[in-house]
Amino acid sequence: MSGKVRQRASANTADSATVSVNERILKECHTLYTDPDTGLVNIAKNLGLTLLAPRKKITVLLIGNHSAGKSSFINWYVEEHVQRTGVAIETQGFTFVTSGKKRESLTGNATLHLYPHFEPLRDIEGVTDYLTTEISTSKQKKFSLVTFVDTPGLVDGDMKYPFDVNRAILWLGDMADLIFVFFDPIGQALCKRTLNLVENLSVKHADRMRFYLSKADEAGHESDRQRVMMQIVQELCKRPGLNRTGFDMPTIYIPNASGKPSRCVNQIEEVCKDVEKSINQTIQNTLNNLEKDCEQIAEIVDRKLDEDDAASSHNFSARGKGCLLGLVGFILPLLLLINLLASNLGKDILVSTLGRSGAETLQLYMAPIKGMWDVIPKAYHYHTWGFFLFISLVLLIVAKLKSRLKPTLNRKQKKALMEKRDYVQNMIKTKKQSLYQEYLQQSVADHDL
Ligand SMILES: Nc1nc2c(ncn2[C@@H]2O[C@H](COP(=O)(O)OP(=O)(O)O)[C@@H](O)[C@H]2O)c(=O)[nH]1
Ligand SMILES: [Mg+2]
């Protein structure tokens, strides 16, 4: 019994040990947004604000000529033969290579289900049939935090793609955190399609793009390699959109790919570092955005509460004005009516209904009105009645209009709003602080080692 418990406990620690701090931070941030009850996405939606949940992994798009070594690089990174490689045109469509609980291949529709933010790809006719996802259980390097997007090899000329490959790659470039461009020394490194795409992508995403001279072990001697590199850089610089100083192009190759040892310098670790840097940047951005989003929510709540206060005081004065106007509109004809009754009913009837003192008081108070009424010639009495009835009607209508109220929040709604504000300002911000602390601590620890 206790053995079983111990076994389970150790399995748990093993499990949590394989989940890196960074992975957990991104997952927790994701949950803070997507939780159905307390998630920021839903809180914001109820306030009329659209928030996007952060992604749990970065996306790395690989482009390059056919046979430049893209698929081989993915296999090397993952340390598993996930993608088919070879000189024949192997990769026809787009493949998302990602880590998961079990080895599996998914079709296009399942892929878009897994990556809802890639859903607009459907608009590019024919792409869905050429989308696949390869899920691998590998946790090598930083693979648990990366999704690679392998693309069809780019070639010029007659090659017919079953969909608009340029449009699809440009669109994927918008979604990717990193865009790796592989140039190989033997193939059509300078194929027009690749150069055009690189130029177009760098209009928006120059900062996300990295260039590599791949399969560098096949470039011959050092001098040959230099020449190839010069050629590629020259070709790139000819493009107006790419003419920048200092093209950085590490030379990389898959160790032992050619089967014979190579003396060429391999900078493939640079690629891994670029991936790591992007992951770190993503974590920092995600945490910063978390705080910004909380602030935005708190601001909206404050604004709503202010608006509600303004509406309440508006309603208070509207009610006051409405009452006053209504009262005048109501009293005016009433006074005329009383005056009419008082002067037309005989004194006896008044005394018998109101009592002697009552009748006298009435006469006393009605005297000014009676005085004014008597000034008006008898022939105009009906007109005067009409006039005053009209005035009081207008007053009553204005009163009705003036007392129109603005909607206000009830106590429960107000409380709910304030709770939301406190939740994002206190709970989530504290959580963000502690996640940041964990993130920083691990890099401090890394340096200490
Ligand atoms: N010598 C050497 N061969 C490589 C390297 N990377 C890939 N290859 C070979 O080049 C061919 C094409 O590679 P592949 O990954 O399919 O290219 P892709 O079309 O860009 O996906 C395959 O036969 C690989 O074995 C490398 O770094 N060095
Ligand atoms: Mg390939």
Automatic annotation (TrEMBL):
<keyword id="KW-1133">Transmembrane helix</keyword>
<keyword id="KW-0472">Membrane</keyword>
<dbReference type="InterPro" id="IPR045063">
    <property type="entry name" value="Dynamin_N"/>
</dbReference>
<keyword id="KW-0547">Nucleotide-binding</keyword>
<feature type="coiled-coil region">
    <location>
        <begin position="265"/>
        <end position="307"/>
    </location>
</feature>
<keyword id="KW-0175">Coiled coil</keyword>
<dbReference type="GO" id="GO:0007005">
    <property type="term" value="P:mitochondrion organization"/>
</dbReference>
<dbReference type="InterPro" id="IPR027094">
    <property type="entry name" value="Mitofusin_fam"/>
</dbReference>
<feature type="transmembrane region" description="Helical">
    <location>
        <begin position="322"/>
        <end position="342"/>
    </location>
</feature>
<dbReference type="InterPro" id="IPR027417">
    <property type="entry name" value="P-loop_NTPase"/>
</dbReference>
<dbReference type="Pfam" id="PF00350">
    <property type="entry name" value="Dynamin_N"/>
</dbReference>
<keyword id="KW-0378">Hydrolase</keyword>
<dbReference type="GO" id="GO:0005525">
    <property type="term" value="F:GTP binding"/>
</dbReference>
<keyword id="KW-0342">GTP-binding</keyword>
<dbReference type="GO" id="GO:0003924">
    <property type="term" value="F:GTPase activity"/>
</dbReference>
<protein>
    <submittedName>
        <fullName>Uncharacterized protein LOC106176241</fullName>
    </submittedName>
</protein>
<feature type="transmembrane region" description="Helical">
    <location>
        <begin position="382"/>
        <end position="401"/>
    </location>
</feature>
<dbReference type="GO" id="GO:0016020">
    <property type="term" value="C:membrane"/>
</dbReference>
<feature type="domain" description="Dynamin N-terminal">
    <location>
        <begin position="60"/>
        <end position="167"/>
    </location>
</feature>
<keyword id="KW-0812">Transmembrane</keyword>
